[in-house]
Amino acid sequence: MSYKQDFNVFVGATSGAFKGIKITDKGNIIKNIQSLSSITENHEVTAMAWGDDDEKEILMGCGVKGVRSVKVYDTEYSAFTSSFVCSTGEGKINGISRYSGAILTAVKSGEVKLWKFNKKEQLLINAGANLHRMRHSHINKNIIATGGEENELKLFDLERQSRIFLEKNVRHDSLELRVPISISDIGFLPNSSNVVTTSKYGFIRLYDPDAQRRPVINLTIKDEALTTLAIAPKEHHIVVGSGKGRMNLIDLRKPGKILNTYKDFVGSITSLACSAVQPYIISTGLDRHLRIHHLETKKLLKKVYLTSKINCMVLRSDFTMKDDDENDKIKAKESISTSLNGSNRDGNTDDNEEFDDSEAEYDALFDKMDVIAHDKNDAYLAKEKRKLPTKQAIIVDDSSDSEKAEKRPKLIKHKTSTKFKKEYNSRTIK
């Protein structure tokens, strides 16, 4: 079995539990990957991320107080491959990623460190106190973004080890009061340099570092403390979640719109993720449930109880709820249809050539099939149609000869006897 066919969702809990989940239409499989007996108070999972583009490796940041640690889990071999103590800075790990073969961590006190065996090659950046989130760009691996409580959005170039962008706060409100900054999550939009942030004050802001320092789009969801965001498969769309259990689809095209509202939440939403191949939104929260909503119809497709309060989650990009057998059948049908059709994207191939190609592929397909041979003496081949024998009913009569005679019908003579004629004539004369 391929490692991608094992678990398609991994979650980390406040209790320190690390679970693998396999979700399909037919049922769900939930497994505690880390032994519960080895979990202590310092094992709370605070950050999770994929360690490579093939999604084989999961990076985990654990611990809130005291000793904080980093663990690496290999999904292909189903085992933890390495772990080390994060001794830099203070507070929990709020961001983790891999860069240049090493692990990059960001802690609440603002230290962003690249961990390497050679201490001289280790990188240390101070991103400011009260750091709540650090995200790594998937397009430009040299760029990271940080932000937090009264900690503005910053972009750093890891190769040059310098800051390349610092946001400028929006103008004062209608009462000429300063608008507070409290960044709760950060996301990089695909195929662009734009960065989107959410705030605990309900702000959703889109930044274009190449254009200006202030946000180009500024939306507000009133009375909601936004906690997390995810990039939707639709272009220029994101999904946001709040501490009250509200989840919305946001259109970031000017002037910006708040679209679908998804329901059935109880409590804070802690993590969001979207499938790249299906219109699914996967969410986790402090109510111990994992939910799957349809992006367009807003319908709740799945609700799974996980027994633990979930802090963070990683989702496979090709997540789907179809079984592996169904996926294999669909892929086989697609491959057969494409091979039989004989694609001609340039439009210069004649119809006869396409017909010859498909006919040759049919011949090759039938040549590979096993021939079922029959013996000439097989009974079912030599058998001819014949009339089936019919059974005649036999009636047995037990009556005597006299009774049989009475039952026999009397014969009527058509010719009148001479004796009868004489008697008749004598009667008529009298």
UniProtKB/TrEMBL annotation:
GO biological process: ribosomal large subunit biogenesis
Basic residues: bias regions: 410-419
Region of interest: Disordered: 333-355, 395-430
UniProt feature, compositional bias: Basic and acidic residues: 420-430
The organism's place on the tree of life at top rank: Eukaryota
Ranges of compositional bias, category Polar residues: 335-346
GO CC entries: nucleolus; preribosome, large subunit precursor
Protein name: WD repeat-containing protein 74 isoform X1
Organism, scientific name: Cephus cinctus
